[in-house]
């Protein structure tokens, strides 16, 4: 599925180039106001002067299916963080960037995956998922801890640190 993010920004008058936060994770918009036209009547001219830059390598948390669950989650040497989510869940969308940050932060020490509960109800039922988002930590093939709801990054970090 392709999603389009549209963000309206207010460009203050300035003489030096500036960086404006962008709503796309790990991205920013770099502007050079001195080169912007006084009249923004032509949006295509403005669009050619805006650059969206990456702030570092983006980490995508891989999805897990019924077929890959055993090998990716239960039969691994590292601890595994699994986010149970659904596309229609607002709090799930809020926690996605946090899970991405944790995956990047704990790279090499922790594996991170996500399970779409609509597509994989068997896994969700097996682990008693009744509310999403639910984040579970597995170690040596066993469920060790679970956090329910959209919680702060510090809460998830504390949970992860117990099993590293």
From TrEMBL:
Coiled-coil stretches: none
Superkingdom of the source species: Eukaryota
Organism: Lithospermum erythrorhizon
Gene3D superfamilies: Glutaredoxin
Domain Thioredoxin span(s) in chain numbering: 41-164
Name this polypeptide is given: Oxidoreductase
InterPro entries: Thioredoxin (IPR005746), Thioredoxin-like_sf (IPR036249), Thioredoxin_CS (IPR017937), Thioredoxin_domain (IPR013766)
Keywords attached to this entry: Disulfide bond, Electron transport, Redox-active center, Transit peptide, Transport
Keyword Protein transport: no
PROSITE patterns: THIOREDOXIN_1, THIOREDOXIN_2
Gene Ontology CC annotations of this record: cytoplasm
GO molecular function: enzyme activator activity; protein-disulfide reductase activity
């Amino acid at each position: 599925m392709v999603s389009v993010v549209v963000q309206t920004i207010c460009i203050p008058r300035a003489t030096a180039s500036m960086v404006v936060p962008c709503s796309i994770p790990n991205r920013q918009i770099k502007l050079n106001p001195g080169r912007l036209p006084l009249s923004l009547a032509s949006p295509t001219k403005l669009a050619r002067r805006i650059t969206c830059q990456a702030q570092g390598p983006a980490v995508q948390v891989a999805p897990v299916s019924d077929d890959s669950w055993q090998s990716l989650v239960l039969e691994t040497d590292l601890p595994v963080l699994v986010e149970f989510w659904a596309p229609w869940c607002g709090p799930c969308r809020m926690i996605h960037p946090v899970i991405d940050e944790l995956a990047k932060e704990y790279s090499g020490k922790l594996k991170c995956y996500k399970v779409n509960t609509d597509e994989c109800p068997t896994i969700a039922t097996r682990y008693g998922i009744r509310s999403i988002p639910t984040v579970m930590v597995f170690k040596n093939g066993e469920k060790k801890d679970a956090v329910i709801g959209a919680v702060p990054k510090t809460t998830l970090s504390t949970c992860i640190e117990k099993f590293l």
